Amino acid sequence: MNSDYRIPDLKIDDVDREILSKLHENSRASYTDIGKEIGLSRVAVQTRINNLVEQGVIEKFTTVINPAKIGIHVSAFFNVDVEPKFLESVAEQLEQEDAVTSLYHMTGPSKLHMHGIFADNQEMERFLTEKLYSVEGVVSVDCQILIKRYKSRMGMKL
């Protein structure tokens, strides 16, 4: 492995992991509340969280929205085969689409794996025909519609 691409290991301790776990449960928890639960002062918690943000361990604080509650009823996963020379340009175009919630380059010959959400099947069909199929370099698309969500992991196991 080329050392230029190695990401340095960050040193986070058990206290940082506890803080991350509390934030994962409720990112709106106050520094004071987290401190009380793990035995630190508000200032110590704030300092540690700021360090985790500066180190890039915490990328952002966000809100998880239930799509069905706001009229989004179709969740679909797509495997998109792309001509190798168009991989980056296709990814750049797709990441700009509001319907696309995640986009990954997967192993295999130029595969993009994508998740999208849509109000209904007609909106998904318009996305496929007007946006996805018309992108230069897209060879084929495999689409699977989510039937039932059993678990959705936001973040990661600590």
TrEMBL record:
Protein name, per record: AsnC family transcriptional regulator
Keywords: DNA-binding, Transcription, Transcription regulation
A Pfam family matched in the record: AsnC_trans_reg
GO biological process: response to amino acid
Presence of the UniProt keyword Transcription in the record: yes
Domain HTH asnC-type: 12-73
PROSITE patterns for the chain: HTH_ASNC_1, HTH_ASNC_2
SMART domains: HTH_ASNC
